[in-house]
Write a structure and sequence with these properties.
The complex is a heterodimer. By secondary structure, chain A is an all-alpha fold. Chain A contains 3 helices and no strands. Classes of the chains: A mainly alpha, B alpha+beta. At the A-B interface, helix 1, helix 2 and helix 3 of A face helix 1, helix 3, helix 4 and strand 2 of B.
Chain lengths: ~100, ~160
């Protein structure tokens, strides 16, 4: 369990790092938000599931699952709110505020 | 319905408090009951197919993993071969529940994000053409429609 947990945490860390690199490399707010969904959907998922396995079966497992459920419900909402605000204020992909 | 709300809240309380001492459990039960009693019951005219909903989770996870690897490759590629685009997509889904699940699923999947939502119409930002496959091909939409099948049949 501890071994598997460690492997999953490392996979999660990989996606978190790639998401961060994407945040720096991608050109505009639209493209950067894609890096965000990478860190949320996969980075947080693998890290938290790995942590749950690492912990073993106790009450912390339930708390981790609650956090995971909240992340999966709330992060799309936040990403959507950000990108819709950008869209409504006139930004378009490729117009490049810092491309 | 109120009873289900109270039960879910109580389960959440138990998992967060992580103790079974009588005082904690009693306070949790009272508060869960109180919250469920005070809040109005949401109109519940829609039916969800639980079987399809259970199958949807793993299917969506597979999609997220696949496009996650794809987007990771794009980001790590030295020449950054992205071609961002806005895709306007007509959908046959119109109810709030369907659109919430569809919009959230699109945003959760790396490479696509919901920009604007209206009944029957979605504006989606995609990082490249390959990321739009599920959406344009209608695979995602079909799965969401399956979940709310009985809902679409009575309308």
């Amino acid at each position: 369990m501890v071994g598997l947990g460690t492997v999953l945490i490392l996979i999660g860390l990989f996606f978190l790092v790639v998401g961060s690199i994407g945040m720096l490399r991608l050109p505009d707010v639209f493209a950067r938000t894609h890096a965000l969904s990478l860190t949320d959907s996969l980075g947080a998922l693998f890290t938290l599931v790995g942590l749950a396995l690492y912990e073993g079966f106790n009450t912390n497992l339930l708390k981790i699952l609650v956090v995971l459920g909240l992340i999966y419900l709330l992060n799309p909402v936040i990403a959507h709110a950000t990108i819709r605000a950008a869209y409504r204020s006139g930004l378009r992909p490729g117009s490049g505020e810092n491309a | 319905m109120r009873f289900v709300t109270a039960a879910v809240l109580f389960a959440l309380w138990l998992s967060l408090s992580a103790t079974l001492s009588p005082a904690h459990v009693a306070v949790g039960a009272i508060i869960a009951g109180l919250v469920a009693w005070v809040n109005p019951v949401l109109p519940h005219k829609r039916r969800l197919s639980w079987l399809a909903a259970l199958a949807y989770g793993p299917w969506l996870f597979g999609r997220i993993l696949k496009s996650g690897v794809h987007v990771s490759r794009l980001i790590l590629h030295p020449s950054l071969p992205i071609s961002p685009r806005l895709v306007s997509h007509r959908t046959r889904l119109t109810s709030d529940g369907e659109l919430v699940v569809l919009g959230n699923s699109i945003t959760l999947t790396p490479g696509t994000i919901t920009v604007e939502v209206a009944p029957g119409q979605l504006v989606v930002h995609a990082i490249d053409e390959e990321s739009t496959e599920d959406l344009v091909g209608g695979a995602l939409e079909g799965k969401v429609a399956d979940m709310f099948r009985s809902e679409t049949s009575d309308s």
